[in-house]
Amino acid sequence: MGLLMTTPLRIIFAGTPDFAASSLAALISSEHQIVAVYTQPDRPAGRGRKLTASPVKALAIKHDIPVYQPQNFKEEPEQAALRALNADLMVVVAYGLLLPAAILDAPKQGCINVHASLLPRWRGAAPIHRSLLAGDSETGITIMQMDEGLDTGDMLYKSTCPILPEDTSGALHDRLAEQGAEALLDTLRLITDKQLSPVKQNNADACYAHKLTKQEGLIDWAETAEVIDRQIRGLSPWPVAFTTRGDDTLRIISASPEATTTTAAPGIIIETTKEKIIIACGNGTTLSIDRLQLPGGKPLSSRDVLNARKELFSTGTHLGI
């Protein structure tokens, strides 16, 4: 068994964002051989819309790993190029391209995926955000053997991660990126030791994590403070929850449910203290806005906003209409 443990695998890595770069970094420092990295084509980014390499590409270049950036794998030359790499395994993490059967079957042991949910819950594009928005108490990482379905393959490894009351999608993303990298290395040990026990997913328990849209950020003050708090945290740092005050859009960066109740209509500002703007929500619940962003401004604490523009948030002002 000791001999098997040290058998390095020839691995192709496919991924694009920061989340994937964490797993690539773990592979780079492991005993395994990364023969190539696949990542999405460079995209325009920033104010200058300059073509920018993905975090995964930047890390691969730093470590002199060959990088491939096909638009897709529909053409035979792209498939042949990947087959020619003669890989034992392909590791896919938030790559963003659909892989046809010809690619899934190319490496000797197929393709495995690092997915940021406890499958079969939250298959699809935005599992971290959806777990928060739904009020799940925990999420985690599932490593699965990929098939032609969307996150439907057999589960090879799972690790759980509690969702904390103050978690934003950003904070949860960072913890799961680290956890995903650790789970990947554990799974590779099981593969080299031939100790994998694949488990089929129960499709009846599956739910789909749709991509986020900016419009999902619009706060409905008739929801309870707890639901709105989850919306604010679940959409932080992107696309950010927002409300309106007349024609202006106010971005709500962070908030917290208050213990007090009210009979005021949802959306009414019922109190401002030195540091808080307290708003009536559904079912008589109340929410304190802690950080927000005025049009054309930067995110500020409620204290700073009230010091500068208290007249915008006088008691009785109705948000969201």
From TrEMBL:
Name this polypeptide is given: Methionyl-tRNA formyltransferase
Residues in Formyl transferase C-terminal domain copies: 211-308
Gene3D superfamilies: Formyl transferase, C-terminal domain (3.10.25.10), Formyl transferase, N-terminal domain (3.40.50.170)
Listed SUPFAM superfamilies: FMT C-terminal domain-like, Formyltransferase
GO molecular function terms noted in the UniProt entry: methionyl-tRNA formyltransferase activity
Reaction equation(s) it catalyzes: L-methionyl-tRNA(fMet) + (6R)-10-formyltetrahydrofolate = N-formyl-L-methionyl-tRNA(fMet) + (6S)-5,6,7,8-tetrahydrofolate + H(+)
Pfam families documented for this protein: Formyl_trans_C (PF02911), Formyl_trans_N (PF00551)
Domain Formyl transferase N-terminal: 10-187
GO annotations of cellular component type: cytosol
UniProt entry tagged with the keyword Transferase: yes
Record keywords, A-Z: Protein biosynthesis, Transferase
Enzyme Commission (EC) number: 2.1.2.9
UniProt entry tagged with the keyword Glycosyltransferase: no
Gene giving rise to this polypeptide: fmt
Family (UniProt): Belongs to the Fmt family.
Lineage: Bacteria, Pseudomonadati, Pseudomonadota, Gammaproteobacteria, Oceanospirillales
Functional summary from the UniProt entry: Attaches a formyl group to the free amino group of methionyl-tRNA(fMet). The formyl group appears to play a dual role in the initiator identity of N-formylmethionyl-tRNA by promoting its recognition by IF2 and preventing the misappropriation of this tRNA by the elongation apparatus.
InterPro entries for this protein: Fmt (IPR005794), Formyl_trans_C (IPR005793), Formyl_trans_C_sf (IPR037022), Formyl_transf_N (IPR002376), Formyl_transf_N_sf (IPR036477), Formyl_transferase-like_C_sf (IPR011034), GART_AS (IPR001555), Met-tRNA-FMT_C (IPR044135)
Residues where (6S)-5,6,7,8-tetrahydrofolate binds: 117-120
